[in-house]
Amino acid sequence: MDVAFVTPNLLIGGVEQWLLGLVKYSDPARVRWHVAATDPAAQEPVTVDRLTQYAPIATGQRAIQRLASRMDAVVVWGLEQPRHWIGDFAGPVVVVSHGCGRWTEAWLRSAKLQATHFAAVSAVAAQSFEAPGVHVIENGIDLDRCRALVPREVTRAVWGLRPDEIAVGYVGRLSPEKNCTAVGDAVAVMGAPYRAVFVGPSYDPAYARQVHAAASGGIFVPPVEHVGDARPTHSSIPWRC
User: Fold this and answer.
1) What are the residue ranges spanned by the domains of the chain?
2) 3-class DSSP state for residue 96?
3) What Rg do the C-alpha atoms of the chain give, in angstroms?
4) DSSP assignment of 136-168
5) CA-CA distance, 230 to 222, in Å (whole number)?
6) Which of 79, 110, 120, 175 could, after both became Cys, cross-link 97 (CB 3.0–4.6 A)?
7) How many CB atoms lie within 10 A of CB 240?
8) What does the pLDDT read at residue 10?
9) Which fold has domain 2-136?
10) Each residue's pLDDT tens digit, 60-83
11) Residues 193 and 215 sit within 8 Å (Cβ to Cβ)
12) Helix (H, G, I), strand (E, B), or coil: what is residue 123?
């Protein structure tokens, strides 16, 4: 069967990693994935490059509606009005929740009225629907991305950690709903030899500055695809603050 995943963006985050796992590890004899992004400006080249190895990508309303007309099912994330993008598609429309908080609850409030099925990646994410009948399908983990390829001493040296320091790490996007400043606050309370280490991108400059202020003396590592080592390399994704 042919299934389209429709999303507002293709950045660097949990949803994109979830999507990459779907298209990479699904049995192509059973499911052929297609990806559609509504905002052509909100796409990270590294994510697009990886996705296109396994699935074609459509962008723009007309292209997405043409794609949907050929699908057996459509999966939607992050869109308040999915019908605006998929048109009069008559098959199953699955709206999936990846988190909780005001933003997730806001778009789900509208999107669920235009869906036929509901899914969530965790029991907590399911609560954002505020409705029964949500199927919870737990997130998977791409072990290839998490496997350490070099000794930890090498990574710590690249980060600038002294042998006696204890790293308190955060891996993920710097975003208010994730309460990243809590890491800096905790380290400030514990004091030496604890030191905060953040690995991940930021699309909110004002909040990124708050995190930097809370984690005075912390280490900020550019987002990388291979989080098993999380070492800045020539292929690191540009840092945004």
Assistant:
1) 2-136, 150-221
2) strand
3) 20
4) E-PPP--HHHH---S-HHHHHHHHT--TT-EEE
5) 8
6) 120
7) 13
8) 94
9) Rossmann fold (3.40.50)
10) 999 999 999 999 999 999 999 999
11) no
12) helix
